[in-house]
Amino acid sequence: MASHRRLRLGMVGGGEGAFIGAVHRIAARLDDEYELVAGALSSDPDRATRSAVGLHITPERAYTDFRTMAQAEAARPDGIDVVAIVTPNHIHYPAARAFLEAGIDVICDKPVTHDLAEAEDLARIIATSNRSFVLTHNYTGYPMVRQAREMVAAGEIGGIRVVAVEYAQDWLSTDLEATGQKQAAWRTDPARSGAGGALGDIGTHAFNIAEFVTGLSTTSVAAELTSFVHGRALDDNAQMLLRFPGGARGTLWCSQVAAGNENALRLRVYGETGGLSWQQEHPNQLIHTPLGAPPRLLSRGGPATGDAATLATRIPAGHPEGYLEGFAQLYRDAASLLRARCAGEIPPAACALLPGIAEGLRGMKFITAAVASSARDGAWTEI
Amino acid sequence: MASHRRLRLGMVGGGEGAFIGAVHRIAARLDDEYELVAGALSSDPDRATRSAVGLHITPERAYTDFRTMAQAEAARPDGIDVVAIVTPNHIHYPAARAFLEAGIDVICDKPVTHDLAEAEDLARIIATSNRSFVLTHNYTGYPMVRQAREMVAAGEIGGIRVVAVEYAQDWLSTDLEATGQKQAAWRTDPARSGAGGALGDIGTHAFNIAEFVTGLSTTSVAAELTSFVHGRALDDNAQMLLRFPGGARGTLWCSQVAAGNENALRLRVYGETGGLSWQQEHPNQLIHTPLGAPPRLLSRGGPATGDAATLATRIPAGHPEGYLEGFAQLYRDAASLLRARCAGEIPPAACALLPGIAEGLRGMKFITAAVASSARDGAWTEI
Amino acid sequence: MASHRRLRLGMVGGGEGAFIGAVHRIAARLDDEYELVAGALSSDPDRATRSAVGLHITPERAYTDFRTMAQAEAARPDGIDVVAIVTPNHIHYPAARAFLEAGIDVICDKPVTHDLAEAEDLARIIATSNRSFVLTHNYTGYPMVRQAREMVAAGEIGGIRVVAVEYAQDWLSTDLEATGQKQAAWRTDPARSGAGGALGDIGTHAFNIAEFVTGLSTTSVAAELTSFVHGRALDDNAQMLLRFPGGARGTLWCSQVAAGNENALRLRVYGETGGLSWQQEHPNQLIHTPLGAPPRLLSRGGPATGDAATLATRIPAGHPEGYLEGFAQLYRDAASLLRARCAGEIPPAACALLPGIAEGLRGMKFITAAVASSARDGAWTEI
Amino acid sequence: MASHRRLRLGMVGGGEGAFIGAVHRIAARLDDEYELVAGALSSDPDRATRSAVGLHITPERAYTDFRTMAQAEAARPDGIDVVAIVTPNHIHYPAARAFLEAGIDVICDKPVTHDLAEAEDLARIIATSNRSFVLTHNYTGYPMVRQAREMVAAGEIGGIRVVAVEYAQDWLSTDLEATGQKQAAWRTDPARSGAGGALGDIGTHAFNIAEFVTGLSTTSVAAELTSFVHGRALDDNAQMLLRFPGGARGTLWCSQVAAGNENALRLRVYGETGGLSWQQEHPNQLIHTPLGAPPRLLSRGGPATGDAATLATRIPAGHPEGYLEGFAQLYRDAASLLRARCAGEIPPAACALLPGIAEGLRGMKFITAAVASSARDGAWTEI
User: Quick check: A320 and B282 CB within 8 A?
Assistant: First the structure.
């Protein structure tokens, strides 16, 4: 592809009434690296068409079936370069498979698949496909999360001892799924969500960010999953202990019934010589607590931030970059990756931070282990 | 124009090395309402061409002179609908005038012009032009700023008594302009900035947001302007007292030499029965302090937010919308305005919140009065 | 005793070089309810005498042995009404026993004893002694902690679902005990501290405040105790899951190796209809998050605080009450209790909030269960 | 006096229904340096007697008239060493004069007198009295305020450029004095308060702390005083600009009608190379913002605090010291001063920080200048 043309993007899911699809589209536009030209936005033909028109997609590229779309786009000279899959979890696997087999790169929402078996199968497909697979663990796109990772890797807090990660929400405090609310309905349905409720929806984010920042792979968990809302089939609250290589210990709490929490993802990491604390609701700050010295408040774009954060920064310090920009960072990095690959060049270093199938697999293993631990009364279970 | 095609956008200024031009472009893309198709990005031909190529602008629409651009685009059947002027302040007036006289709508960065005389002349031109003029006082695009305005208007804090607004930065704490830094150079140069330094650059934002939220027009100021960095021709710190109609009183402080402040715009308003507090660096929260009851922490997308905030909200509570989204809100509203006008329809209510020439005039009058007051040893001076 | 004379207070421990003894003395003075008249401040005679002189204690009432002191004071017509025991943990039991058997009331630092067997024995002694025993779980003396308890009891957040309590410090991040530092030495020595390190020193506070506020008795724990500093015999970090009656779930984390944490005791409680959040380092605020409404920031002395908080408040809102006042509250309540008992009156309601042997027993059972759970690889263990 | 006996303290004012008297007494007890033995607690004999009994003052030393008390105590061999004057402002001068002339040291609440003439006269009396006069500008007793002063003096933020001090409350937002509330009644009455309302009650604190930390004497003000509550004779809101020697500039805002503010005293100071920020409602923290480096969060008792803060610290970091301790610090320093003077020794360095008549005079000059400036439409007025 010409190095300067925009990438042609397709989308599966994200039609009227959806949430995360619109976020993906804004993120894709933010850095002007993509143009949305095709979509299987809904399996309902009317809705698919209406959604496509609203998005400037021409009628012949508005599909109702992702398999047809994969075939047709692969056959066009101006076919899509990459597809974004933004459906409920159970569609991730078949859709990703269809596009990868058609030779089309994939950007996929998390968690990667409905269950671990699918994820492992997908990993095999990707390994032989010569295609890229990007998973939108968007919180790792925040500059200060990357700053934290860089500081840990540089030894600025010493060997890790304690990790405390949590992700609390309250929107499922009541039986919202009974009202027919679409987002609640599929997230609380094992057939569409998989084995994890809050665990899959937000716990995987917490787990991913903890591993991303520390650079450690969790070895085992001792978990307690609970469904507080009567009749709910999946967990809406999960609390667990974590063990990491080298002796580090941790806790992970995710909840969708913690009244007053909107999207309270928070990570704290303590090492032998210092600590780091970050919270998603105020993402432009990172607190560094060197042992024996006053805490330092690092800010995005401010003094003492390193390369990783700077590369993910668009605007000066004090102008808060938010969630959309974090999301957009993945799209930007993905565009760099695809362009570089196409040109036979080495991708920029930032591309190495892109979550992909490995992170997807980790997520599924995490869900699987947590569910198993909880089922075994919290016995420690390897990941 | 067809109601669903994107608006064709041109840009004056914003070539390589510029800051705010890139912010405007991201903001324009965020809601997919514009496509950038023409530009006079730089008066240097090489730089103009290089900048245009990088932005997918075709060579024949990459101009080096805004007057030529205005004529040429007005003559094309596919000419731009609207131009964004993102140059240093002294270009605002001639460029805006050129496009308005060519029948093209204008989105212009603030402060509106170099001096009050230009602003008054521009107001006359606009009044007779049948064109729209939008001024990017972007902080009024934040949902919680609109929420605050709505609450004041609804009488939720009673009659206004006290206003405290401040905008503190530290990037001009040293003689940065002497290093040749482009942003510092023009902002500290009266020929390009006008009579206000920090006053024009950020004081106008503070002034605008105070009037936006309170709905009050400041009647007079008693000001003290200071240049702390040796040899600087314009103020880098301004402190003043404000008087409002109905007896309300206020303070305004803007500074670019307040060490440790990145972009600390903060507004507090106190009325007979309550108060409101908002700060730009954490823009998704608004603190409401009803007299005699516990403070309430309102959040964007959260419980108890009203229509104005909801209309400016893209994503759920807890996912911080940031500066870019605030900026993008103005572009979205402007697109709605232009489309409605074209279709002969009544614009949506949110368009009434768009800053335009009136706000621009207010800003110039504010600078003029503050400079005059300070020159008269802080005597109260009417605005 | 005359209703208006000050209570005569003795002290065991708290001589030169001690920390908590001085805190107890300030707390006792704060409300002018006690006068310190006797002490066994140190087992070293010289230090005991020097310490006594500095505290205005007359020489004949400066003892070097708590048993002698108990006998002598019981025999004096102006003998002490009550003794404060502020020694390392292993002295708590014999000293408390000596004074109780001499007919003297006891105020004792926490944890109640060295081990569970001692605590149970002490409980038996108290039960037959007709004396009062007050345990200084001082954090329950904070007005806003009592406010939280009152709100939970009144059903303001509905049935409890999730509890998250943590108490993080960093002062044992290095091998401080090897330097001979007195506070570190005894706290890391099983012979003087008991089976819990961080667990006994601060974990018991976290455990106590969680039960105090929720009104729930933890039923079992699944724990992971770690000693991060090489060669340390006791835990310096403990993380555990908690189960409560009625299905509530919780996490407890205590650490003395979390760099950057000074005394970060923090409690969050979530119920069916709301949540509460409090942190000791800013103790005058309590955040109430009613489900579906904006968070309310309650402050000590401010609007909407109830009787329990008001009774523990000395000064108006906005003037921060601190740690010493929280501590003093227990002394004030203890004085009320002792005076009422002496006068044959019913003690004021606030006395019911005083921690005593029951809370001490709970603490020892907690340590015992946590140590056992961790030893059994985190198996759930009843408390 | 014997170096180890407690100082004998008397009190004028502070009987039943008073606020600040109880605060003074707790502060005096906190460090066990004083015993309260005499008082003219009320001019009403019954109230005076009842108040004295409750405070363990013997009947013959419970006076109803401060002049009688001064004479009688001066004549006793065990007479008071020092008196605390805690009455409404208009009594400060005659009471202080009576005790100083009787040879008794004075600790006096602020503002120092009813008007500037009295303050100047008092200054003359003190100058010839050979007695100490301590003014309880209690906020200067906070460890982190002293830390800030020490850092400024050490040049850690360079030459001062900008000062922003504010003190906001809301308790006079309505016509509280009309309800007969005692605290409101005298504070809004020119006969008892003097020329300043909010200005005298809290503005003097803001003014004092700004001068204390910066070490600069304000040279002139341009002020705007307002009475927002109908019929109120004194200001309930004051906003002003400040000029300091060396070219520094500042703003001062004090208000008792700012809804939602309890006791929001806040100071920010910016110099050539850094800034400092402190707020009274969270007094144990001080933010230091070195130019070009991340902000540092200094905490009382924590790393990097200096001698001045350490000397005023009682308990370890993380255990919040509050308002009472700040107050008590002045009493502790005053005790050191009195003991040293009595022993013919040089007082400890910390005594140099004690506010006295000089600070009292400054306060009265400040009120006088602010009132004059406001009366002259905000003209700059020398202090």
Answer: yes
B378 vs D253: CB contact, 8 Å cut-off? no
Question: What is the dotted CATH code of the domain comprising B143-313+361-382?
Answer: 3.30.360.10
> Angle C286-C290-C291 (CA atoms, 0-180°, nearest 5)?
145
Report how many Cβ contacts below 8 Å link chain A to chain D.
30
Query: What is the rounded average pLDDT for all residues in chain A?
Result: 89
How far is Cα C225 from Cα A241, in angstroms, rounded to an integer?
11
Q: At residue D297, does pLDDT exceed 80?
A: yes
Write the CATH number of the domain with boundaries B7-131. 3.40.50.720
pLDDT for D30 equals: 87
B86 token code pair? 């993102």
Cβ–Cβ of C291/A170 closer than 8 Å? Answer: yes
Q: Are residues C293 and B299, on separate chains, in Cβ contact within 8 Å?
A: no
- What mean pLDDT comes out for the span D116-142? 90
The answer regarding whether domain D142-314+361-382 maps to CATH 3.40.50.300 reads no
Provide the shortest C-alpha distance from residue A171 to chain C (in Å).
9
CATH of domain A142-315+361-382: 3.30.360.10
Residue C240 and residue A240: Cβ atoms within 8 Å? no
Residues 6+ apart with CB under 8 A from D116: D361, D364, D365, D367, D368
Backbone torsions φ then ψ of C381, nearest 5 degrees: -130, 130
* Fold exhibited by the domain C143-315+361-382: Dihydrodipicolinate Reductase; domain 2 (3.30.360)
- The pTM (predicted TM-score) of the whole model is 0.91
pLDDT, tens only, A212-225: 999 998 998 999 99
Show which residues on chain B lie within 8 Å of chain D, measured between beta carbons.
Answer: 157, 161-162, 164, 166, 170, 173-174, 222, 224, 226, 228, 237, 239-241, 243, 247, 249-251, 253, 255, 257-261, 268, 270-275, 277, 287, 289-291, 295, 377-380
Which one of D252, D257, D270, D281 makes the best mutation probe of the B interface by having the most chain B beta carbons within 10 Å? D270
pLDDT tens by residue, A24-82? 999 889 888 889 999 999 989 999 999 999 999 999 999 999 999 999 999 999 999 99
* Greater model confidence, B272 or B346: B272
In angstroms, rounded to a whole number, what is the distance separating the alpha carbons of residues C332 and C79? Answer: 20
Q: By C-alpha distance, which of B294, B296, B293, B250 is closest to B269?
A: B250
Q: Which residue of C has its CA nearest to D21?
A: C315
> Are the CB atoms for C108 and C96 separated by under 8 Å?
yes
Q: Is the pLDDT of residue D3 over 50?
A: no
